[in-house]
Give the backbone structure.
Amino acid sequence: MVMVRIDKELCKGCELCIPFCPYNSLNMSRNLNEYGLPTVYFKEGHPCSGCRHCAVMCPEAAIEILE
Ligand code: SF4
Ligand code: SF4
């Protein structure tokens, strides 16, 4: 089973990763991290193929794909 781990303290809310998910499984959260920035979250129950497109796109290396 694939797990998407997003480090909320590394995410700066640039939204670059969101359109690269082929399943539309990423979204912006209203929750702010400790720097006051909005962060991305993985929509629970949505599919993930482990393609790593989101992780590769992230300039902050905030996304980790675990299998
Ligand atoms: S690994 Fe691929 S399918 Fe999974 S959340 Fe990232 S872009 Fe979407
Ligand atoms: S690309 Fe990285 S820094 Fe930008 S919103 Fe996505 S997880 Fe956050």
